[in-house]
Amino acid sequence: MPDQILSTQAMRPESSTMNASAALGPTGSPAGRFRRHARALGVAACLAFASLAHAAPATLAQNDDEAIDIPAPATARSARTPLPNVPLTADILYRVLAAEISLQRGLVGPSYRTYMDLARETRDPRLAQRATEIAFNARASQQALDAARLWTELAPKSPAARQVLSTLLVLSARWEEAEPLLSQQLALAPANHRGEAILLLQQQMSRTSDPAGAVGVLQRITASDTKLAETHLALARAREAAGDSPGALTELDQALRIKPDLEAAALMSAELQAEAATDKSIEVLKRFLAKSPSSVNGHITLARLYLQKNDMEAARTQFEVLRKVAPNDPRVPLALGLTSLQARSYDEAERYLKEYLQMAEKSPAANPDVAYQYLAQIAEEKKDYATAITWLDRIDDSRLATAAQAKRGQLLSRMGRFDDSQAVFGELLADAEDIPDPAQRAQRITAIRQAEVAAMLDGKAYDRARKVLDERVKAEPDNADWIYELAMLDEREKRYDHMEARLRRVIALQPEQKQGYNALGYSLADRNERLPEARKLLERATELGPDDPYIMDSLGWVKYRQGELQPAADLLRTAYAKAPEAEIGAHLGEVLWHLGQHEEARKTWNEAAKVEPDNQTLIETLRRYNQNMLLSR
User: Fold this and answer.
1) How far apart are CA 89 and CA 434, in angstroms?
2) Long-range own/partner contacts, residues 573-576 (CB < 8 A, 24 or more apart)
């Protein structure tokens, strides 16, 4: 089964199974939530400049995802940095204005050098601060370090300057220079807030390029704080970032021995064990909830683990407990709605999500756009595309707006409104042209064009899709992604010679990428042609993507074609467990049928029909084996 790079699923909300898990916490799983939060704080710390005359806005980052508001530390607010008595001469004013104009024109180097020269001449730390900001935003790490060192030299008592310098040193893993600065930061923390300060310090260190080095530094800095549970939690986070999960679990056990009700430690411990030992994770949370029965996050995470085990009743019990523990918490009906969505109980899911919207009106922390997204998904599942578009049009969150508009374009295409659909993507492309960063702009434009092609394919507007793809291949003749998609369209239209030529071109351009080998090998196997060659291609794809369920499906299919029924069934079972999709289920059912396991084959086909009853491969398979009645259930 070839990978669908431009699958229309790419622009829809995540599958309901994934969403049910992801939405059961404020921002997902505890460990994942911490990593994302730490990344954002790390970048923001680099830009936590004191509020000075020439300071930039408080919210600064290299992109929208990393932007965050960080107030100046209390020590920075209370201690004013002495400033030199330098008159604002016409020369200084002219050079500052010239530097800012240069920066607006994209001439970062001259602007940076001007501010550095002025800072050295005037000994004014505000000018060094501005140079630091300019270099950091330009991703010029060495220049940012030089400017931060100068800033610290000119304002040696400024906590903000020291924090920015230490963070920049952390980013480049210059531990010998960073460690004393980090120790000084921690020393400034009041004794009754030392645990919090240690956790903040670890967040600052988490952006390093050397997470293993961060563990050693953090251990040394906190050597006298081992009686604090927060110390062990911070070390657990550092070890987990360094890939040492067993060490992280040991630290978490120690943290919970010191402080059994430390929610962050319990949640992280459960999360780290969830995949390999779900039952152990559940026991960790049960013990924690016995001591902290009112922990909303604890109950939500426990419910998510039950969902992971597909124990819907136990998950629902946790949600009902939450109804009593937190009757006014909007996350509860949201979680119940997503549980119902996962179970394909769409009417029930819609009821809970609308309840969430009512509660969200009174909760500033709630995000109604999340519910709009899922309500649109429910309407789409019911094939009520007009209602789905109505929900999508209510989304205001800029982080979701592009995906929501792309989904709107896809739904319009399904409704046969192709001109309207392409107009939506045209507006998205026009908006993308305003993105200032060239790399981000190019990435966004490519994603929008891919979504446009996917929408045309989804609406069976193959001529329009081919026109867009032909234009892209002409503009970017060595872009393997566009060539691959054109090859997939060729296969759909049974232009196999063209398809094969294009896929061989993809393989030549990207010999270490799995998609070309998989697509060509699967096509040959599915048409029962040149099976030894197909197998060789798929074995190479397996080398490049050993855990890819689509490649497993393809290799299982060619083995079936070559008469290796049991090995094919084993491989297809693994693929179906990883990706329970209709096409893989159709293949598995067919192999099981030929092994004489007719009941298991019918069961597999029945499950696949519930997932995607309109899948053509499944429909054709059921017709061949006179099992059409499964589609009408």
Assistant:
1) 37
2) 574/549, 575/549, 575/550, 576/549, 576/604
156, 229, 573, 632 from 601: Cα distances, Å: 74, 53, 11, 17
Torsions phi, psi for 59 (to 5 deg): -95, 110
| Dihedral over Cα of 72, 73, 76, 77: its sign | positive
Residue 612 vs residues 124, 454, 618: alpha-carbon distances, Å: 67, 18, 9
Q: What is the pLDDT of residues 159-211, one digit of tens each?
A: 889 889 988 998 888 998 889 989 988 988 898 999 999 999 999 898 888 99
Burial-class residue 632 by CB neighbours within 10 Å (0-12, 13-18, 19+). exposed
**What is the DSSP code string of 481-545?**
HHHHHHHHHHHHTT-HHHHHHHHHHHHHH-TT-HHHHHHHHHHHHHTT-SHHHHHHHHHHHHHH-
Bridge partner residues of 59 (DSSP): 69
Dihedral over Cα of 344, 347, 349, 353: its sign:
positive
Q: Is 210 helix (H, G, I), strand (E, B) or coil?
A: coil
Is 303 within 8 Å of 24 (Cβ atoms)? yes
Q: Which residues, in sequence order, are CB contacts of 14 under 8 Å at separation 6+?
A: 22
Three-state DSSP class for 59? strand
541-555 pLDDT, tens digit each:
999 999 899 999 999
Residue 551 CA to chain centroid, in angstroms?
23
Q: Helix, strand or coil for residue 69?
A: strand
Classify each residue of 517-528 as buried b or exposed e, where b means 16 or more C-beta atoms within 10 Å of its C-beta.
bbbbbbbbbbee
Question: What's the burial of 280, exposed, middle or buried (CB within 10 Å: 0-12/13-18/19+)?
Answer: middle
Q: Measure the CA–CA gap between 253 and 228, rounded to whole angstroms.
A: 13
Eight-class DSSP state of 26: S
Distant-in-sequence, close-in-space partners of 372: CB < 8 Å, separation ≥ 6? 391, 392, 394, 395
Using CA atoms, how far apart are residues 345 and 618, in angstroms rounded to an integer?
Answer: 23
How far apart, in whole angstroms, are the C-alpha atoms of residue 169 and residue 376? 46
Phi-psi region of 209 (alpha: psi -120 to 50; beta: other; left: phi over 0): alpha
What is the per-residue pLDDT across 43-96, written as a single tens digit (0 to 9) for each? 222 322 222 233 333 332 333 333 322 233 333 333 466 778 888 889 899 999
Percent of the chain with pLDDT over 70: 86
- What tokens does 561 get? 């074609």
Alpha-carbon torsion 134, 138, 141, 143, what sign? negative
Using CA of residue 376, residue 379, residue 385, residue 391, what is the dihedral sign?
A: negative
> Residue 509 to residues 477, 483, 499: CA-CA distances in angstroms?
11, 10, 15
Cα 125 to Cα 80: distance, rounded to the nearest angstrom: 12
Every domain of the chain and the residues it spans = 398-475
Distance, CA of 315 to CA of 415 (rounded, Å): 37
